[in-house]
Amino acid sequence: MQKVSQIGSLVTVPQKGAKAKLLINGEFIDSQSNEYFKVLNPATQEVESLVPQATPAELKEAAKSAEFAFKEWRKASVIARQGVMLRFQHLIHENLETIAKNIVNEQGKVLSDARGDVIRGLQVVENLAGLPDYMLGSRISVAKDMDTYTVREPLGVVGGICPFNFPAMIPLWMFPVALATGNTVVLKPSEKDPGAALMLAELAIEAGIPKGALNIVHGGKPTVEFILQDPAIKAVSFVGGDAAGKAIHAGASANGKRVQCNNGAKNHGVIMPDADKEHAINALVGAAFGAAGQRCMALSTAVFVGESQEWIGEVVEQASKLKVGSGLDKSSDLGPLITKGALERAERLIQSAADEGATVLLDGRKPTVEGFPNGNFLAPTVIDNVKPHMQCYQEEIFAPVLVILRADTLDEAIELVNKNRYGNGTAIFTQSGAAARKFETQIEAGNVGINVPIPVPLPMFSFTGNKASFLGDTNFYGRSGINFYTQIKTITSLWRQEGVSMNKPSVHMPT
Ligand code: NAD
């Protein structure tokens, strides 16, 4: 096993302002590119690292090394691959703090939340302890001396394209499952915060991933185009926004690749008048503003039903108590937005709500954050009396902005949620089993919480967004993830115990 890191001293931890490495054919190398993206610390605007737009030659080399590594890695036994994953999960545990701190510097979220980012991904790796069971085939005797059996085989080289908002969890949704099932990988982290993916790759190598099996390529659209075009890459996993997701789904499909795309969201929390008031308000406020609203499962839209509308004032009160600040400040509840562009877009959408007749009950624009005058900060913002045609409802804001709609009945709330084009997640707060059951059965969203604000399934299940939030037919992680990265081969064999197998040609369809 190649020893490349010690706890807390990963070689890929970017030094401030340094160039991020590519991982090609088992080596962390400098790109020959002339084009770089600046990773700016969202709280300070300091340059954390410089991310190359990998050159065409580097991209090709990454795919070729993955193709070459696949020849041997596919032959590794399930137990051997499981062993690597067991060592990998151990190394992630040991390096959790280093990875989490890098996430705070590059992405901006608060440290406790950054730890959660790593842990939710780590759980996907831990779940691979069940790999042999997931990989089991089936067998049955179909005729005298004849058996049919299935085996689950890897696809080959697979590509991964990641968003900025979970720099550890989402790469971990992808490459460990792909590798454990015998594939090799070309992964593109977000150009906005690639540090965590690099560190995780380094740990995977230390855990025993062979040379070339995992490659990290950086860049923007040209890197994505390469992944979509290169014939060596057989499948593409994407998590990110709608525009990129639609283009990637179409591009990969046109080139005959298997593809799964988890896209954008607008998640509704429905608050019934019989809910446990304190629980519902706290859950809603935490899920709307945690991670500065930059979670695909953020509960960014509340629907207050009937008398629960009287609680809106208390939501505003709780939201106003949250502290916006640096992710490294223990007293901060939420950090900055990822970029100045994201901040300006959110501010514009808040203004559009006011202009379109909604009521901005809590305006978090331009907060003062002592010591961080240049941060991309937006404090919790609550907008009431929102109507479905308004821009702030039509678009995913992806910021600490809660939009509130009102409904008279549960039926009306369900109809509202179902009319929304997205179907990532939703939650109901109620103490009525009948209301919960109605919601659960009639609601058109793929991840449903009942008194649970952010129902992201643990990895023994799969992440099952639907409608515009998902393109493809096989979900991430859990059994679906194994299915996505494998194909089934069905073998029918005849081993005669006695006599000749066939004494004259048979021209009819065997029955
Ligand atoms: P994004 O779509 O801007 O970027 C995602 C990836 O696609 C990046 O690697 C980026 O380089 C690439 N990319 C961006 N534009 C592209 C284009 N036009 N063509 C090809 N590639 C392109 O997303 P983001 O801002 O990094 O992440 C936030 C979005 O991701 C939100 O919409 C959020 O809801 C979504 N998201 C969804 C889930 C989910 O599971 N449904 C999880 C996390 C994030």
TrEMBL record:
Query: Which UniProt keywords are present, listed alphabetically?
Result: NAD, Oxidoreductase
Q: Known NCBIfam families for this protein? A: MMSDH
PANTHER family per record: MALONATE-SEMIALDEHYDE DEHYDROGENASE, METHYLMALONATE-SEMIALDEHYDE DEHYDROGENASE [ACYLATING], MITOCHONDRIAL
| InterPro entries, A to Z | Ald_DH/histidinol_DH, Ald_DH_C, Ald_DH_CS_CYS, Ald_DH_N, Aldehyde_DH_dom, MeMal-semiAld_DH
UniProt GO BP: L-valine catabolic process; thymine catabolic process
Instruction: Give the enzyme's main class according to its UniProt record, as a single word.
Output: oxidoreductase
Q: What CDD domains would the database entry show? A: ALDH_F6_MMSDH
Q: What does UniProt give as the signal peptide span?
A: none
Annotated protein name in UniProt: methylmalonate-semialdehyde dehydrogenase (CoA acylating)
